[in-house]
C-alpha cells in the first residue's frame, strides 16, 4: 500500500486455489483494477490462510511485441494502453482527480490497484494507500522525462508544475531542479555515484537481478533448452 515493491506481482509466479478464489467472491472479481495482477497478488498475501513459497527460480516471463512489457520497456506506454484496453473508468478517475498526476501510467495503475484493495478490505484491515509516495514517484518521473530523457515538452512540463502543490514544489521541485542543473556540469562518475545513492535512499522498489542472455528465442521450448536459471542465480535446487 506504500507503493514500494518487495516482491514482484506478476501472476505467472502464482498458482492459486480455486476454493480460495471463490471465497473472495463477495468482493467482486478476483482480478480487478487496471493492473489486475497487482491487485490479486496482494489480496492473496492479505487474505490467504496458507502460502507456500518455493525459493528456486522456476518461472520464465517473456517480453515480446504482443506483451505490455514490450511497450513499457521501450517507453511506449500509451501504445501499451491501447494494447491492454484497460483504461480506468471515468468515475474512478474523477474520484481520484485530486491525487492523480501526469507521469508514468505504470505508477498510476499501481496506485489504482492499491486503491481497489483499500475499497474492498480497507475497513477490515485499516488499510491506507500512500498517496505521498505516489506523487513523489510521478514528480521524479516527470523531472527525469523533461531534463534527462527529453520525452516531455516544455509546455507539458510547465503544465505539470502547475498541478503539484506548494509544499511539493518546495520539498521536491527545487531540489530536483537544482540536481538536474548540476548534473550537466559535474563529472560523469560523480553523477552516477550520486544517482546510485539517491535511488538507494529514496526509491525502495524491487530491482530484479536478471540473467542476461544475448540470444533471441523463437519459443518457450528454446528457452527451456538453453537457459538454466540455477546457474545464473547461484541457487542449488532443494533436496528431494
What's the short version?
With 240 residues, the protein is an all-alpha fold. Helices cover 54% and strands 0% of the residues.
Would you mind describing this structure in some detail?
This protein is mainly alpha-helical and 240 residues long. The chain has helices spanning 18-23, 36-47, 68-73, 77-84, 90-95, 105-125, 131-147, 154-161, 166-183, 188-202, 220-226, 229-233. The longest helix is centred in the middle third of the chain and has 21 residues, at 105-125. The mean pLDDT is 82.
Q: What is the count of β-strands?
A: 0
Structural class, judged by helices and strands? mainly alpha
Share in helix: 40-55%
The helix/strand series, from N terminus to C terminus, equals HHHHHHHHHHHH
- Spatial separation of the terminal alpha carbons: 37 Å
What are the salient characteristics of this protein?
single chain, 240 residues, mainly alpha, 0% strand, globular
Task: List the SSEs and their pairings.
Elements: H1 18-23, H2 36-47, H3 68-73, H4 77-84, H5 90-95, H6 105-125, H7 131-147, H8 154-161, H9 166-183, H10 188-202, H11 220-226, H12 229-233
Helix pairs in contact: 2-6, 7-9
Amino acid at each position: 500500500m506504500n507503493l514500494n515493491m518487495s516482491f514482484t506481482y506478476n501472476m505467472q509466479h502464482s498458482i492459486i486455489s480455486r476454493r480460495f478464489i471463490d471465497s473472495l467472491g463477495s468482493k467482486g472479481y478476483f482480478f480487478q483494477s487496471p493492473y489486475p495482477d497487482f491487485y490479486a497478488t496482494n489480496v492473496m498475501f492479505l487474505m490467504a490462510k496458507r502460502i507456500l513459497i518455493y525459493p528456486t527460480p522456476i518461472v520464465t516471463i517473456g517480453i515480446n511485441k504482443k506483451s505490455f512489457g514490450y511497450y513499457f520497456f521501450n517507453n511506449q506506454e500509451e501504445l501499451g494502453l491501447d494494447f491492454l484496453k484497460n483504461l480506468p473508468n471515468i468515475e474512478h478517475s474523477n474520484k481520484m482527480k485530486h491525487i492523480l498526476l501526469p507521469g508514468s501510467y505504470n505508477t498510476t495503475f499501481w496506485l489504482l490497484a492499491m486503491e481497489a484493495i483499500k475499497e474492498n478490505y480497507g475497513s477490515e484491515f485499516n488499510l491506507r494507500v500512500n498517496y505521498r509516495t505516489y506523487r513523489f514517484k510521478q514528480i521524479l518521473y516527470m523531472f527525469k522525462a523533461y531534463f534527462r530523457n527529453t520525452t516531455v515538452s516544455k509546455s507539458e512540463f510547465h503544465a505539470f508544475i502547475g498541478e503539484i502543490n506548494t509544499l511539493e514544489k518546495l520539498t521536491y521541485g527545487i531540489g530536483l531542479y537544482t540536481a538536474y542543473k548540476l548534473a550537466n556540469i559535474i563529472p560523469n562518475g560523480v553523477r552516477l555515484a550520486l544517482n546510485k545513492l539517491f535511488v538507494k535512499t529514496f526509491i525502495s522498489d524491487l530491482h530484479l537481478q536478471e540473467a542476461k542472455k544475448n540470444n533471441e528465442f523463437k519459443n518457450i521450448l528454446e528457452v527451456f533448452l538453453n537457459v538454466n536459471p540455477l546457474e545464473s542465480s547461484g541457487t542449488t535446487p532443494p533436496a528431494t
